[in-house]
């Protein structure tokens, strides 16, 4: 059984949005500062928070948009979403001239130097969660729709504490790395829809259903991917339960045909993962490479899963006489470094 | 064509190793952290593929000690966990909670450790300012290092 721990670690590092993360953080901070300086928004209890995959730390290269959830904690039922969005757009336009687009349900600010945009979504309180505008008419009236994006962040944090790679090591949370790998597999195997959040929720349900307790990334990925493949078949008929709102399902732009196509592709992907898990190191690496594909939306597409140094690209082992394995014993006694 | 200089050791350092060292150093600050470098020798080149931390329970802000028992256990566990047929011990690393390079004591320790191996050992010192200072020793003698990142 090939678990290739070092190579999974490298694969995760290859999809980590390190530069994007810094840019996203800076862009979010700039937008927040502007919103928190506006008198009307302050009266409405403005309290922006990062949401979306970047906010939950499950984003992968490249991060092209960042969602800012602008909680207006003192807003009442009389708040007109069209008017407040107009106001937010005007406030932002003053600070980011020519880069602001008023959209149907949000305001987008472009950060062209970083090839990044920030989407500002306003929200009013609704019990212990929030409502956001769904569709705004010309008169500013709209239907409001319930949402609870902060809950997904809480569930993510908790799941990453619950599922560990190494028992007793709280730093070895495996849920977040798995969601990243699943998102990468979606990008590689699924045409456009369903989107990344849909797959993140599928991964959440897969973990909840299985409560896996494995000892390697390879094993976790294999069992979770198979469960997602199975879930996708049911989801086509029954919808996907929203873990943040009781009795609700996740909305998706995917058509029934797209859902069926995704189910078939993920079934193939799960079978490939099972084959990789059972193969020898080098053959397994070739299969993991096929499963995880290449980085998307980057200047050059790079293989996510590295080929082990001792393997050929066809899955055979290199024959080399030049390499001497590192020593199997450490120096005797103690070595003091100061 | 010139023959390779036998006193120069090429060291290839993988980003995984750098990241592990950086993270462990930050976590241990203001104390020193340290551990083992894992990799292999390819002709006269040393490939640092990974780093592992070995906790010295008595570490201070100016000292980290590699204890044989703890280090051997950590090496055995890491080799089993990583499942990489070429991985083994190729040197030591430790952090300095200040922006200073390897001390005389550091250079002496890696020289002494290298006496037990046919191939050169590598020492990486992670400074507080993020710079890494790299040394190598073979058969008890210091070597000039030519380092590259991979």
Task: Describe what you observe in this structure.
The complex is a heterodimer of chains A (about 350) and B (about 150). In chain A, helix 9 packs antiparallel against helix 10 (about 255-280) and helix 10 packs antiparallel against helix 11 (about 280-290). Chain A folds into 2 domains: about 20-145, Beta Polymerase, domain 2, CATH 3.30.460; about 150-280, Poly(a)-polymerase, middle domain. Chain A is built from 11 helices and 9 strands. In chain A, strands 1, 2, 3, 4, 5, 6 and 7 form a 7-stranded mixed β-sheet that branches. Chain A has helices spanning about 5-15, 20-35, 40-45, 50-55, 80-95, 150-160, 175-190, 195-210, 215-240, 255-280, 280-290, and strands at about 45-50, 65-70, 100, 105-110, 115-125, 130-135, 140-145, 325, 335. Chain B has a single domain (about 10-150), classed as Cytidine Deaminase, domain 2. Chain B has helices at about 15-30, 70-80, 105-115; strands spanning about 10-15, 35-40, 45-55, 65, 90-95, 120-125, 130-140, 140-150. In chain B, strand 2 (about 35-40) and strand 3 form a beta hairpin. Classes of the chains: A alpha+beta (about 350), B alpha/beta (about 150). The interface of A and B includes residues 325 and 336 of A. Strand 8 of chain A pairs antiparallel with strand 2 (about 35-40) of chain B.
Map the helices and strands:
The complex is a heterodimer of chains A (338) and B (150).
Chain A: H1 5-14, H2 18-36, H3 39-43, E1 46-51, H4 52-55, E2 65-72, H5 81-95, E3 100-102, E4 107-111, E5 116-126, E6 129-136, E7 142-147, H6 149-162, H7 175-189, H8 196-210, H9 217-238, H10 256-278, H11 281-292, E8 323-325, E9 334-337
Parallel strand pairs in A: 2-5
Antiparallel strand pairs in A: 1-2, 3-4, 4-5, 5-6, 6-7
Chain B: E1 8-13, H1 15-28, E2 34-42, E3 45-53, E4 64-67, H2 68-82, E5 88-96, H3 104-114, E6 121-127, E7 132-138, E8 141-149
Parallel strand pairs in B: 1-3, 1-8, 5-6
Antiparallel strand pairs in B: 2-3, 2-5, 6-7, 7-8
């Amino acid at each position: 059984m090939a678990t290739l721990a070092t190579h999974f670690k490298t694969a995760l590092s290859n999809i980590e949005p390190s530069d994007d993360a810094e840019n996203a953080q800076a862009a979010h901070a700039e937008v927040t500062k502007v919103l928190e300086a506006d008198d009307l928004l302050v009266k409405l209890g403005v309290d922006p928070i990062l949401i979306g995959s970047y906010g939950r730390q499950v984003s992968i290269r490249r991060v092209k948009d960042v969602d800012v959830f602008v909680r207006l904690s003192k807003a009442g039922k009389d708040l007109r979403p069209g008017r407040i969005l107009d106001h937010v757009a005007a406030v932002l336009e003053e600070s980011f001239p020519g880069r602001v687009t008023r959209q149907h349900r949000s305001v987008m600010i472009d950060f062209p130097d970083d090839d990044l945009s920030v989407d500002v979504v306003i929200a009013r309180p609704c019990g212990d969660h929030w409502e956001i505008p769904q569709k705004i008419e010309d008169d500013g009236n709209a239907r409001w729709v319930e949402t609870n994006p902060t809950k997904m962040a809480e569930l993510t944090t908790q799941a990453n504490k619950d599922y560990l790679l190494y028992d007793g090591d709280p730093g070895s949370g495996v849920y977040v790395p798995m969601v990243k790998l699943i998102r990468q597999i979606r990008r590689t195997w699924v045409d456009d829809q369903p989107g990344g959040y849909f797959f993140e929720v599928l991964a959440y349900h897969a973990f909840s259903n299985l409560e896996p307790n494995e000892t390697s990334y390879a094993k976790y990925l294999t069992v979770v991917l198979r469960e997602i493949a199975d879930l996708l078949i049911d989801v086509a008929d029954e919808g996907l339960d929203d873990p943040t709102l009781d009795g609700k399902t996740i909305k998706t732009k995917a058509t029934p045909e797209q859902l069926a196509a995704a189910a078939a592709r993920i079934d193939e992907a799960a079978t490939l993962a099972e084959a990789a898990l059972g193969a020898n190191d080098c053959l397994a690496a070739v299969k993991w490479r096929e499963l995880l594909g290449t980085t998307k939306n980057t200047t050059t597409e790079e293989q996510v899963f590295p080929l082990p140094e001792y393997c050929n690209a066809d899955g055979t082992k290199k024959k080399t006489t030049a390499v001497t394995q590192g020593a199997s014993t450490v120096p005797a006694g103690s070595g003091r470094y100061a | 064509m010139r023959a390779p200089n036998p006193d120069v050791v090429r060291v290839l350092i993988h980003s995984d190793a750098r990241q592990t060292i950086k993270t462990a150093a930050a976590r241990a600050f203001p104390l020193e952290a340290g551990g083992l470098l894992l990799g292999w020798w390819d002709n006269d080149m040393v490939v640092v593929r990974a780093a592992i931390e070995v906790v010295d329970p008595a570490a201070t802000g100016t000292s980290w000690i590699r204890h044989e028992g703890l280090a051997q256990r950590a090496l055995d566990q890491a080799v089993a966990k990583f499942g990489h047929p070429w991985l083994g011990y190729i040197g030591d690393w430790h952090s300095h909670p200040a922006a200073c390079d390897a001390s005389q004591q550091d250079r002496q320790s890696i020289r002494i450790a290298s006496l037990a191996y046919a191939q050169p050992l590598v020492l990486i010192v992670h400074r507080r300012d993020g710079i890494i200072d790299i040394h190598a020793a073979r058969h008890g003698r210091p070597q000039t290092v030519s380092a590259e990142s991979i």
